[in-house]
Amino acid sequence: MKKHLVWSVYVRIFHWSLAVCFLMPYFFKSYHKAFGTAFLVLAISRIIWGFGSVRYTKFSDFTFSGLFDYIKNALKSLKTKAKFDEKTKIYGGHNAASSYAILVMLIGGVFTSSFGLMIYFIKKGFIEVEDKKIVTNLLGDIHGVFAIFVFMVVVAHVLGVLIEKYRGGDSLNSMLIDGKKVNAKFDAKVSNFWKIFAVISYATAIYTFIIMS
User: Fold this and answer.
1) What residue segments make up the domains of the chain, in order of their start?
2) Residue 178, Cα to own-chain centre: how many angstroms?
3) CA dist., res. 92 & res. 5, Å (int)
4) What's the whole-model pTM score?
5) C-beta neighbour count of 85 within 10 angstroms
6) How many CB atoms neighbour CB 79 within 10 A?
7) What DSSP state is assigned to residue 30?
8) CA distances from residue 211 to 21, 24, 45, 103, 200 in whole angstroms, order as listed
9) DSSP of 43-98, one letter per residue?
10) How far is CA 104 from the centre of its chain?
C-alpha cells in the first residue's frame, strides 16, 4: 500500500528539536536557560505554523472530536489484543488524543519557558520588582508546576504513540523518521514561505541557545 508524506522534514525537525530542548535541561543544568529559551522560540514558531496552510500539521486539520471514544477504544484494544477495525480507525494525521496533546505541550511549554525567562530577566535586573527573592521563588514554583505537567503530557503522548503502533498503525519509523503514513490520502506540501519561516525559526533558536549558554 502506498504511503504518503504526512510529517515534512521541517515538522520533524520542529518535533525532535522541541523534544531535545525540553528534556535536556533535566540532564544539563548549566544549559537550562539556553535550552529553555530555544524551546520557547521553537514552540511559538510551531504554534504560528499551526495557523498556516500545511496539510496535517495546521490546527484546522487536527481532530478534536471523539477524544474519549478514542481513548476508550484504545484501552479496550489493549485489553482484548484487538487490532484496528472500522470502529478503531487509523488517522492520516493527528488523532484526537495526539491533537490535544500537541496543543497542551506547545502552550504549556510556552508558559513553562516564559516563567523561566522572567526569572532570568528579574535576576539580571531587566525587570524591576520590589522583592526579587519572593517573586523569583513564586515564579520558580509556577515554572516547576508547568514543567511537571508538560512532562506528564509528554509521557502520555509517547505511550499513545506506542499504543497506536501496537494497535496496527504505521511503524515508528514511518511516524517519526521518514514522516510517511499508509492511511494518509495526500502528501503534505510545504510552500516556500513556510520553508523560509521554518529555517528562520531554527536559526533563531540556535542563536538564542548560543547567547544564553
Assistant:
1) 4-212
2) 17
3) 10
4) 0.89
5) 11
6) 8
7) G
8) 15, 17, 19, 28, 16
9) HHHHHHHHTSS-TTTSGGGS--S-HHHHHHHHHHHHHHT----TTSPPPSS--HHH
10) 8
What does the pLDDT read at residue 88?
47
Angle between helices 192-212 and 9-23 (to 10 degrees): 20
Which residues sit opposite 5 in a β-bridge? 180
For the record, the C-alpha cell of 99 comes out as 491533537
Dig out the grid coordinates for 23 from the structure: 528534556
Question: The cell 508524506 sits on which residue?
Answer: 5
pLDDT tens-digit series, residues 48-87: 999 998 889 999 999 888 888 878 877 777 766 555 544 4
First to last CA, the chain: 47
Grid cell listed for 114: 516564559
Say which range, 87-91, 108-112, 174-178, 186-190, has the weakest mean pLDDT.
87-91
22: nearest Cα among 154, 189, 199: 154
Pick the CATH number of 4-212 from 2.40.50, 2.60.40, 3.30.70, 1.20.950: 1.20.950
Report pLDDT for 154. Answer: 95
Q: Which amino acid, one-letter code, is at 48? A: I
Q: Please say whether the beta carbons of 93 and 13 come within 8 A.
A: no
Q: pLDDT tier at 161 (50, 70, 90 boundaries)?
A: confident
H runs (alpha helix) in the chain: 9-23, 32-50, 67-80, 96-124, 132-166, 172-176, 192-212
